[in-house]
Design a protein that fits this description.
Shape: globular
Structural class: alpha+beta
Distance between the termini: 45 Å
Strand content: 35-45%
Strand order of the largest sheet: 7-8-9-3-10-11
Number of strands: 16
Radius of gyration: 20 Å
Order of helices and strands: EEEHEEEHEHHHEHEHEEHEEEHEE
Largest sheet: 6 strands, mixed
Helix content: 25-40%
Number of helices: 9
Length: 288
């Protein structure tokens, strides 16, 4: 169990506000945090990691106290064993991919590199410098580097937002693969609805420093009239990208994009009512 009960005064473009978080989530869970810019999402990750100190409260991981204002406990970032993955890959440009991994691993985890290289499918460019890799390749390396110290908790701050749709989906696959293989506890900041649906167990919405909503995918995306298998949606736009047939759908107040077959693309019209099955593939079903 991860237990957060923290307060911190923050400053946004609209002025100062209080981040007040009282939250618990299970070990081995994948939790997504969404909400408007300036609501405290990144600051929350920084406080969990130890990069920012709360003004008050406590942070516990599996009974281990990482921060407690009253008892003057503030465990260093390194000792918290937290992994990070951000939009900025933060790889050392003057080192090869392998050197980046070895630097992050340290001697105690160097034997783990070979396994991660295989899991992340990065064998082909270990001797290359990061600036010679595509954005998707760099982010796979960054994910491997975040995992190489065997973190107790993986923190992701919009790590895929700079990638195109193809690479975003590909990295989601590797992230899900690592999450399941290593039984990770993951906390991810994202605004991307398909990403939330594909990866998350729990979703938290922050607004102005407070938890405005918390629940499962069903709580966030289903309406009362939806049945157990599908979400009601409306087609906003049809388009073809990189020879892929795509539909932009409105689900509640969320806009998402899904890939469909040629037949489905031809048979559905804009403004049509459709249904989408909520699973990792976001399988599309038309309602006739």
């Amino acid at each position: 169990m991860v237990r957060l009960n923290i307060k911190r005064e923050l400053h946004a473009s609209s002025g100062p506000f209080q981040l007040v978080i009282d939250l618990s989530f299970e070990k081995g869970s994948f939790t997504s945090i969404t909400g408007p810019s300036g609501s405290g999402k990144t600051s929350l990750l920084r406080m969990i990691s130890g990069l920012m100190r709360p003004d008050d409260g406590s942070i516990l991981y599996d009974g281990e106290v990482w921060f407690d204002k009253h008892d003057r406990i503030d465990v260093s970032t390194k000792k918290r064993k937290v992994g990070f993955l951000f939009q900025d890959y933060a790889l050392f440009p003057n080192m090869t991919v392998l050197q980046n991994l070895k630097y992050a691993a340290g001697k105690e985890n160097e034997e783990f590199i070979d396994e991660l290289v295989e899991v992340m499918d990065i064998e082909g460019f270990l001797e290359k410098n990061p600036n010679l890799l595509s954005g998707g390749q760099q982010q796979r390396v960054a994910l491997a580097r975040a995992l190489v110290r065997k973190p107790k908790l993986l923190l992701l701050d919009e790590p895929l937002s700079a990638l195109d749709a193809y690479n975003r989906e590909k990295i989601q696959f590797y992230l899900k693969k690592a999450y399941k293989k290593y039984n990770l506890t993951v906390l991810m900041v994202t605004h991307n609805a398909p990403e939330i649906i594909r990866l998350s167990d729990v979703v938290i919405k922050l607004e102005n420093g407070k938890i405005a909503k918390q629940g499962t995918i069903r709580d966030f995306f289903y309406k009362a009239e939806d049945n157990n298998n599908y979400l009601n949606a409306e087609v906003i736009k049809k388009h073809i990208t990189d020879k892929q047939y795509c539909l932009t759908l409105l689900i509640g107040d969320q806009i998402i994009e899904v890939k469909v077959s040629d037949t489905e693309f031809q048979n559905v019209e804009e403004a049509a009512k459709v249904k989408i099955q909520v699973n990792e593939k976001l399988e599309f079903k038309t309602v006739y």
